[in-house]
Design goal:
Blueprint: H1 7-23, H2 27-32, H3 43-55, H4 73-86, H5 94-107, H6 110-121, E1 127-130, E2 146-150, E3 153-160, E4 171-177, E5 188-194, E6 200-204, E7 217-226, E8 231-232, H7 238-250, H8 253-272, H9 286-314, H10 321-344, H11 365-375, H12 382-393
Parallel strand pairs: 1-4
Antiparallel strand pairs: 2-3, 3-7, 4-5, 5-8, 6-7
Helix pairs in contact: 1-4, 4-8, 5-6, 5-7, 8-9, 8-10, 9-10, 10-11, 10-12
């Protein structure tokens, strides 16, 4: 595969690199004020996102009034490449920027766009996403949280779980059942819920990988009143919004993941040549060398499969790569950190080793292995992706 770009795209890349170099937040500021959840924005993060918005570098494919510069699809891919390489966050409320705001733009009224979408882009408000429930994870159509239409709005009762950033979010894009008698896919609506509303109880779920930081939450709704004007899209039309939201979530995710995995494999190769605290050198082990070679091949395959899928999409053809990329990438991540943890032994939990350096996509290897399971669940489980590939890509019959 040969990758090349026209001069206009390379000029776009050069302009972005220069802007990032001149405007990037300082590392000491980022480490001094870390985010406490995926909906918590420290002052530097709000300033950074607003700076991106004002310069047209927040969502470059959108028009300037929405924080973009009408970039072409290829330029947008270059944009995500550069951000992945820079290891800078675009926003610390990813569900707000990449899922909720596009849904508001696609399905919202003009009043909702002005009231919610633009402040979200400017980092003035943050969001959580109310999809998963104890009995409705990958099967969103199985949700049971109810919203009954009353004179002054909707009255919501029910529970959500695994709600990232709920304890810090200003609003929730909440999927609710508004017609219990309709087929389960057709009785769902989407509400914009103010998280300060009476009747909302939030219970953070401490994580094994970092008990001091809880991003996941249980959220309980007890007769929560939501104004009628906070209905997003048509009544009972939430299923199409759900499809759009998940499509936004997957987006260009493969670029960031492929870059992160490529860097990690590279560090694993470097580490293999060094003596561990017990005196071992992993490069002297033939099994480890073989595993490293396979991991390197797979990381490259993920990257180039993504490029192939994007090239297909850019030619206005339907690309089946999204589910394959999601499945292959998350399973590769899990396998990579399992291999590293087994090879390193006790060093895999030592934060003083090279694998323990703190950065956006770093941490003790054993902890990263535990976290890797989340990727096989979020945005569609590996099992769901296998079904999609079987039915829609391979054309196999449903059982």
């Amino acid at each position: 595969m040969r990758l090349h770009y026209d001069q206009a795209t390379e000029d776009f890349r050069a302009e972005l690199r220069a802007w990032l170099e001149a405007n990037r937040p300082q590392p000491e500021e980022m480490s001094r004020e870390p985010s406490q959840s995926s909906a918590h924005l420290p002052p530097w993060a709000r300033t950074w996102q607003r700076r991106l918005f004002d310069a047209g570098w927040l969502v470059p494919g959108w028009p300037p009034e929405l924080g973009g510069r009408n970039a072409t699809p290829v330029q947008q891919m270059v944009y995500f490449e550069e951000f992945a390489g820079s290891r800078l966050p675009r926003a610390l409320n990813p569900q707000g920027l990449s899922i909720v705001t596009p849904s508001l733009i696609d399905f919202g009224s003009e009043e909702q766009k002005q009231r919610f979408a633009l402040p979200s882009l400017r980092a003035e408000i943050t969001w959580c996403l109310g999809m998963s429930e104890p009995g409705a994870g990958s099967d969103l159509a199985g949700l049971s949280t109810r919203a009954e239409l009353a004179d002054d709005g909707f009255v919501v009762n029910g529970q959500k779980v695994w709600t990232s950033g709920a304890q810090h979010a200003d609003y929730c894009l909440c999927f609710v059942r508004t017609d219990p008698d309709a087929p389960k896919h057709k009785g769902i609506s989407v509400l914009i819920v103010d998280m300060r509303s009476p009747g909302i109880t939030i219970r953070p779920l401490p994580q094994l990988t970092d008990p001091k930081q809880a991003d996941f939450n249980e959220v309980f709704f007890a007769s929560v009143v939501v104004p009628r004007e906070n209905l997003l899209g048509p009544l009972h039309g939430g299923w199409s919004i759900a499809g759009g939201s998940l499509a936004h979530e997957r987006g260009m995710l493969w670029i960031d993941q492929a870059s992160s995995l490529e860097r990690t494999v590279g560090r694993f190769i470097e580490l293999a040549a060094q003596a561990l605290p017990d005196g071992r050198r992993l490069a002297d082990n033939a099994v480890v060398r073989d595993q490293l070679a396979q991991l390197y091949i797979d990381a490259q395959a993920l990257k180039f499969m993504g490029y192939h899928g994007f090239a297909t999409f850019a030619r206005q053809h339907v690309s089946p790569e999204h589910s394959v990329l999601k499945l292959f990438g998350t399973e590769l991540e899990r396998r990579l950190f399992l291999t590293m943890t087994e090879a390193l032994g006790a060093a895999a939990i030592d934060v003083s080793t090279p694998t323990g350096r703190r950065a956006r996509d770093e941490g003790p290897t054993a902890v990263r292995y535990l976290r890797s399971f989340a990727g096989t669940i979020a945005a569609g489980t590996s099992e769901i992706q296998r079904n999609i590939i079987a039915e829609r890509v391979l054309g196999l019959p449903r059982r």
